[in-house]
Amino acid sequence: MNLPESYIPILIQAGVAVGFVAVSLLGAHFLGPQQKKGNSVKNQSWECGIPVEGNARTPFSIKYFLTAVLFVLFDIEIVFFYPYAVNFREFGMEGFLAVLTFVAIFFVAFFYVWKRGALDWDK
User: Fold this and answer.
1) How confident is the model over 26-70, as pLDDT tens digits?
2) Which residues form the domain of 71?
3) So where does this one cross the membrane (predicted)?
4) Cβ–Cβ < 8 Å for 53, 75
5) How many domains are there within the chain?
């Protein structure tokens, strides 16, 4: 097998990554605490000393997940403002118009989500 020299660092990094994962998993298995089988009190679910109530598989409202996704979407938007804020003089009017268009698209998306009632917790 004849690989170009540019692939060698990639293969070394992949090998180190796989090796690290393997050593971590094996180390955790053999060096970690050993759980005893059975239905003892120590193996039951426990949260801050409060007895468990209900089932852990209780479904959440879709509003929770929708709000989380919207938060991530609008939060990541802020990351794209940083390069503009650092170099706004170099971008000039063309950069300003590009950022204005970017913000306008997100405002349209925000108003759409708002009008659809995705931000209303009472519904």
Assistant:
1) 999 999 887 767 666 666 666 677 777 777 777 777 777 888 888
2) 61-122
3) 6-32, 64-84, 96-114
4) no
5) 1
